[in-house]
Description:
By secondary structure, the chain is of the alpha+beta class. It has two domains: 44-164, Creatinase/prolidase N-terminal domain (Creatine Amidinohydrolase, Chain A, domain 1); 166-405, Alpha-Beta Complex (Creatine Amidinohydrolase). It contains ten helices and 18 strands. The chain has a six-stranded mixed sheet with strand order 4-3-2-1-5-6, with helices on both faces. Strands 7, 8, 9, 10 and 18 form a five-stranded mixed sheet that branches. It has a three-stranded antiparallel sheet with strand order 13-16-17, with helices on both faces. Strand 14 (368-371) and strand 15 form a beta hairpin. Helix 7 (169-189) packs across helix 8 (199-211) and helix 9 (274-299) packs antiparallel against helix 10. The radius of gyration is 23 Å and the shape is globular. The relative contact order is 0.12. The mean pLDDT is 95.
Amino acid sequence: MRLPGTEDFAPPPTGAERARWREADIAARPARLGRLRARLAEAGLDAYFGVRPEHMRYLTGFTLGEGEEKVAGNSGRFFATGSEVVVLADSRYALQAGRQAPEARLEECGYDLSGRWPALVAGLGARRVAVEAGFVSHALWEALAAAAPDVELVPVEGWLETGRAVKEPAEVERIAAACAVCDRALARLLPRIRAGVTERALALELEWLVRTGGAEALAFDVACLAGPEAALPHGSPGDRQVLSGSVLLFDFGAQVDGYRSDMTRTFFVGEPAARDLAIYALVAAAQEAALTTLETALAGGGTAAGLPSGRVVDAAARAVIEAAGHGEHFGHGTGHGIGLATHELPSLSRTAAESPLPSPTVFSLEPGVYLAGETGVRIEDLALLDAAAGRLEHLTHFPRAVLVVGG
């Protein structure tokens, strides 16, 4: 088949689109906060203490750069109560937080959170505080409890994650835009793939194409893995040369206006081996089985209550691979939600919730088969599921058919 070109995919977002997305976020924040406040009231809690950058951006607009939370101290952590939102920011971030989160009250907080904790919770009138326990260390929890022993810390999990799994239209648009960045970047890279080039050189070139093609950042580090290295589901590129007759796996994603994409394509460099072609066909069939399960549910009525669970979708893909005798070579889940974080709810795996998938939502479908020391194949696309609209749409548009490159 003809190799895809950049003209086959949507162009980078315009300034007008980015401005519209910012306005959509501002308009959506009251409802987002309203859902959180309803949970606080239902649980009899006075405040929510959040530490995750994606939650802070979702509720307030204050945005740390990718990886910046590692050096930001307590800046970007926040409180939400029934009547206000408080964002913590030291002198490095105060001006930025004031611009991006004008509706929030700013509180100075350096690296000594426990030292400031009594005054912070007293200023909120909070006696029972919900804490994102899965993302707070045991040491910090103990320090906060000791700093204000009259304030009860209540562990909570999934409150904001559950709401974020249901995507607003402007969120879907940004994920689709991030997908298009990656589609175009990979199309531009194809003519440069040849035997003898190294994994690292291709990964760096692809990163450059993503960053200069409309992305503000990578969603995660580019994986480029050739031949036997493709059997490492999350391997890293090295100085290994690409050999003719081997597979070449790319796993990468872009970030556009905070929202991420994630795609995997496995190519054949030169003449494909019969074994690798058979595994590719198997993985493609597994992905198709997952899609068919979702399409069948939509055709059966189109209500959110009638959607399959992530566990059911995973089982459909897994059954195809197991029937071919490769069950032990598919260890990870079939998919994951994506948005402000690369991995978020909903999960499509053996341990996923048994409740119906949320709607509308966006998730990956990424079955794979990995033969240690020999080869590996994964195909990954992002899909939008909208039960009310009866819609299952690929957001990743790069072809899924077998592609031979570098011949």
